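Try this one yourself first.
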């Protein structure tokens, strides 16, 4: 069984201590042993990144892009294997994993292409014979901390814009699914990226996160993960005045109006609430349904949900894999218990799955609570699992009020054929990412991504907006 090392200053580095990564669909299956880095490893990685920075920053961006294009090609040559490993370490189904690896490859290519388009500003001066312009420059050494739920796409959408802008990086992946990110680093290594430009340290979030924030060369930190960790990073990193970007939790609503395309709305809510085991940051966790169609919609949604097949994501025909680990499963089961006390018995699901094919994994039924009210914890707190709270709204205005009654504002969706309602939703909904007649989850990399309220802090990720975080301006006034 392979031991996967950290990557520091262009070398694969093993550690005395390692941690295991096991398949959440079958914990008898060991994916590998992974280096468990220390604070000293993070310091070494940050020092290497600082040494590599001037040369990397002075390389023209299209030349930096060549490494990303090459890494994308290398990943593509291993497409099926990398996707299979993702299913085995994270639990999402094989088709979902293939979709994510394809997205990772496209993200690398997209930002590589942007290398030839990194624009600044050129505007006319009020003064005679003065040429004035602003050019982009990199920030320096950037720390990247990523979660397990999109274990390849999120590392890619932080790494690629950071590198193309000329920064050097230290990345810390989530311990529940480190191999998918490791494969990107491996591809960059094989693409010949200069030593020290990319560094990768695995291990405890608390230890490595603190070491990263304290590392002297660090200039910025981009984090995706839970809200409590994000708030802690904000407090710690602000003391040093690091540039910060935080993408955190959600409690995403889908509003279902009486004039919706009914069958499509049922499908969209089932998809957004339960696929990837509800472990997408943009998953729907509240369905807010207009009174007139509430009963019919709930009945159809329950029927659809009961047909979803839960199991090992490598098997054909499976819709939903396991929770990522024992801790995530326990959180989901705890919230189902809270839901029972608050809203009564669930109208679908509600149990851990047991028996052959399930006993060695963290499987739970997709679960629906009906008649949920806004004061209940299952309507307010992020569960991050396949648990949906269905709320009744007396009107569109009431639905909007309920949808906005949240500390979070990541994604939101409306299902309607009324164009005025669509625009009322677009302008009135407090969320960073909106969908209309689509699932609330499922984004592309070409547009800005991120939330509002307690879901996010700092500039948006992805699309052209990614450069707002990973670069700075230098403004020049020149008399000729
Ligand atoms: P998490 O906060 O537990 O961990 C995220 C990362 O932070 C991991 O790499 C972890 O090791 C590290 N970490 C833990 N403690 C740390 C500390 N004290 N300092 C620095 N780093 C630390 O989150 P998770 O369970 O991996 O991910 C699930 C959460 O991520 C959910 O809340 C979900 O909504 C959120 N998420 C948000 C987005 C988004 O774009 N808004 C996307 C995906 C996931």
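Now uncover the answer:
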């Amino acid at each position: 069984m392979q031991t996967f090392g950290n990557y520091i200053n262009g070398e694969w580095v093993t550690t005395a201590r390692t941690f295991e990564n096991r398949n959440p669909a079958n914990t008898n299956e060991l994916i590998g042993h992974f280096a468990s880095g220390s604070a000293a490893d993070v310091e070494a990685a940050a020092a290497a990144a600082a040494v590599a920075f001037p040369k990397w920053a002075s390389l023209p961006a299209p030349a930096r892009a060549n490494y990303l294009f090459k890494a994308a090609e290398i990943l593509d040559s291993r497409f099926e294997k990398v996707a299979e490993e993702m299913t085995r370490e994270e639990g999402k189904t094989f088709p979902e994993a293939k979709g994510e690896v394809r997205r990772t490859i496209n993200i690398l290519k997209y930002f590589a292409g942007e290398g030839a388009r990194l624009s600044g500003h050129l505007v006319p001066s009020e003064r005679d014979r003065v040429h004035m312009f602003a050019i982009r420059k990199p920030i320096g050494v950037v720390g990247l901390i990523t979660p397990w739920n999109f274990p390849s796409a999120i590392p890619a959408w932080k790494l690629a814009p950071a590198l193309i802008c000329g920064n050097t990086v230290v990345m810390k992946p989530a311990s529940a699914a480190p191999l998918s990110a490791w494969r990107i680093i491996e591809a960059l290594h094989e693409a010949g990226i200069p030593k020290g430009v990319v560094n990768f340290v695995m291990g405890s979030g608390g230890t490595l996160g603190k070491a990263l924030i304290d590392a002297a060369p660090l200039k910025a930190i981009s984090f995706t993960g839970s809200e409590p960790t994000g708030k802690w990073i904000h407090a710690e990193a602000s003391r040093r005045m690091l540039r910060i970007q935080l993408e955190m939790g959600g409690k995403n609503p889908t509003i279902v109006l009486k004039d919706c395309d009914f069958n499509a709305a049922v499908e969209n809510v089932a998809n957004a609430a339960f696929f990837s085991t509800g472990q997408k940051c943009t998953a729907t966790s509240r369905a807010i349904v207009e009174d007139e169609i509430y009963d019919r919609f709930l009945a159809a949604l329950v029927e659809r949900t009961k047909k979803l097949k839960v199991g090992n994501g490598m098997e054909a025909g499976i819709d939903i894999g396991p929770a990522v680990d024992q801790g995530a499963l326990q959180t989901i089961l705890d919230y189902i218990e809270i839901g029972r006390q608050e809203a009564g018995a669930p109208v679908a699901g509600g149990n851990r799955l047991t028996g052959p094919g399930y006993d060695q994994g963290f499987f739970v039924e997709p679960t629906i609570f009906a008649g949920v009210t806004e004061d209940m914890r299952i309507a307010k707190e992020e569960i991050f699992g396949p648990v949906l709270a269905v709320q009744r709204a007396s009107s569109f205005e009431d639905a909007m009020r309920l949808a906005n009654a949240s500390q979070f504002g990541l994604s939101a969706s409306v299902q309607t054929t009324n164009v005025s309602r669509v625009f009322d939703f677009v302008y009135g909904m407090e969320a960073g990412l909106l969908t209309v007649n689509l699932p609330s989850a499922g984004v592309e990399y070409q547009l800005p991504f991120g939330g509002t309220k307690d879901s996010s802090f700092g500039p948006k990720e992805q699309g052209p907006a990614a450069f707002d975080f990973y670069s700075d301006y230098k403004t020049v006034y020149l008399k000729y």
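Discussion: The mean pLDDT is 98. The first strand starts at residue 3 and ends at 4.
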